[in-house]
Amino acid sequence: MNLKISKILLATAVLPFVSIVDLNASGASNMVKPLVQRLETGEKQTVVVYGTSLTKVGAWPDQLRAVLEQNYPGQVTLINSAQGGSNSEWGRKSFDEKVIQKKPDTMFIEFAINDAVAGRKISIEKSRENLEDMIDRLLKSNPDCEIILMTMNPSVAHHGARRPNLAAYYQMYRDVAKQRGFQLIDHYPAWQKLLNEDPGLFISYVMDGIHPVREGSLQVILPTMIRDLGLKQGKPELNERTACWNYLFGMMDKMVKRDKQVTREEYNRYWKKHFGKSDANKDDVLKSDEYNPAVLFKQIDADNDGTVTLDEYLLIYAPAFGRHDANGDGVLDATEIWLHK
Predict the structure, then answer these.
(1) Which spans in 261-333 are helix H?
(2) 287: domain range?
(3) What does the pLDDT look like over 122-169, one tens digit per residue?
(4) How many C-beta atoms surround the C-beta of residue 257 within 10 A?
């Protein structure tokens, strides 16, 4: 089955911006100048991005760094302090070292997607407590720091099953942003729109069901950030780092032998394991109640018989191997998949 090819058109007009009213730990209001406004006056800025693997191995921090450098050469230091697999409990414990000691002028933060993992037993109330604690500590350290909260993409298949209440955790971030007068960059609506309108393109952008790859970041995340931050249009595609692909290929590389090469066998073994995580009753086929959302199940059910076999599943991922196998030898080596660290 071939992935449907289409383009998602996202508004990227530069919006005017105004000072954002923040509330510090004591409840007093401060007029905090947004990042772009400070940069326009020539100030040098330290930006810290903090959160889960969606930030740690996401392409968006490098792409944002590229646009900021293009618009404001030499003015921005962007530090990625995120941690793969983390949630707000880790974020709270590590906050002094990972954020406050970096002395940020602006911080982007997202932990909702991992707080929403039901098995971790972090309630929405606890997630909010952790978030508010980090906010208060940062404002106590630097009342002029701009804090930007973010929702991220939906999670699907077994990743979605582990996060049955993700939408509520994202709503909590919206509520905190509104109540405290912080900017919110809400990525979820654009991703949800893409998922509903073109599920084939969605899965090509979010290959493993949770981590957007470079192409998805370019087409969905960066347009939203450029618009909401009030940045001038840049060329984020000039940054060629592929942190998420490197993460995925690293997982594949150990399926048979860790040797900085991914064979077609290793590639397929990885996706077979991925398939098995959704196959709850272990009958070697996926049914609609095992693979959600329904719009995505329909996309991968090539023969429309109400089940998805492993062969159908692998067909979804086959094109990506070919795109990376530049010399067509059936092996992805370091020159093809780990070029950009």
Answers:
(1) 264-278, 294-300, 310-324
(2) 245-337
(3) 999 999 999 999 999 999 999 999 999 999 999 999 999 999 999 999
(4) 9
